[in-house]
Amino acid sequence: MKLKIVQTSDVHGSLVGYKNVLNYVSKLEGHVIKIDSGDAIQGSSEMIFYKKNQNQFDNPIINVFNEIAYDYYIPGNHDFNYGLEYLHNFTKKIHSKTLCHNVIQGESNYFGSSYDLKIIEGVTILIIGFTNHYVPKWEKEETIPGLTFINPVENYHTFISNLKEKYTPDLIIVAYHGGFNCDENFQTLKNGSNENVGCELLNDDIDLLLTSHEHRLFVKKFNNLWISQPGYKGVNLIQFDIEFKDGKKEINGSVIDLENVAAIKEFSGLDNFKKENEKFLNQKIARNIGQSLKFKDPFKDRLDKPAIAQLFNEIQMETAGANLSICSFPNDVSGLNDDITIRDVLETYVFSNTLYLCKINGKTLKKALLENANFFKVYDHEIEINKAFENPKKMYFQYDYYEGIEYTIIVNKYVSNEIVDLKFNGFEVNDNMSFLIAMNSYRYLGGGYQTWQRDLEVIKEYPIDVAEMIIDYITREQYIKVNFKDNIKVLKGMN
Fold this sequence. Notes:
By secondary structure, the chain is of the alpha/beta class. The strands form 7 sheets. A 6-stranded mixed beta sheet has the order 4-3-2-1-14-15, with no helix packed on it. The protein has a 6-stranded mixed beta sheet with strand order 7-8-10-11-13-12, with no helix packed on it. Strand 5 (103-105) and strand 6 form a beta hairpin. The longest helix has 14 residues, at 307-320. The protein starts with a strand and ends with a strand.
């Protein structure tokens, strides 16, 4: 018996990405099991438009899943962003089975199923699902009320062993919405986060470990276990070709490039949604009459603050009544055109965050700035991005731009980086000073592994999505002109 396993993940609601998947899998023949391992219903302009118009449209990714005919769906952390009702509306209408072992409500599995058995021509396949247990660190309690997220590692090996003994499957697949806190040789990193526990899920009893979340692209064999991750936005997928013969199985994994797949098929029933979405996105909401709000280079724009960082920070400060603000940006974005559209904003601020106003003292502020300074490092006498923010996963979004203060980051080669000339309104910041600082919910809840945010006192949370807040501000202003302040300097030290 020959079998194909197809894995997608982290498509983040991109209709173009899923159309690539549809046109590829529709050509596959024979036995095929299709698995999407999460972050499916958040992260695209289409999803923000749908969220604003849920009374008019159904979630288009429901059509997408049902036409692709996914067999299994494993929830990703971003699939919880808009609350349980939003997620439940999706899971109850897709034909694929939702698998997730480690989300509990009371004493029950919230999604109903931890695993599933599929028998094809006498061959038994066991598929098990896990989501990322860090969801409560990123989401407010009211977004995920009553849910407990258990570390997949807890009793993992015993759980796998018991299932193997009970069902004697011919193939075991673990699909996990998480990645690896380890190097290329799968040795656990000493200073990493416990967010990604893929290294601890390596198990001789399983055949495939389908991972996600980090947006990495690879398929490789580790001992007798195949491991994969399919990238981001549906640009690629992972395919395993498996042959069962004479009581043995042969597995080969490959990365499939979807960008050049002929777009013959379209999703049915979405024409009106796409038409209205395009109208929404193409609305011109303001005109930039000042310094460019575009990004030029992912590294240079972090070495030298771009005007758009100041604009977004000033919007947060005005909204929250703060005297300081921090913001960050995705790894690779283009920024805002001079004729600013809703599309520009949503493709620049892509994630779902609310806004927090917090109280911070000078001591904690210095701690935050020092942690942020670790983004830079000296290699071969030049300031570059610290490789810890590039491997194993590109994490440029962890770098924060601060507004409301002036400071200089000294990047040293042999000793820790430093913060000098830290001033507020021209006065040197001391440990006992107190400030009101605006930041998004991702940072406040600990996204980025910072420790400093634990010392903050919350004054207020603004429940509006930050991207919507930016759209509202820009629309109201009509003409945008940033009075640019060169308040951040990054210099190479003598050490």
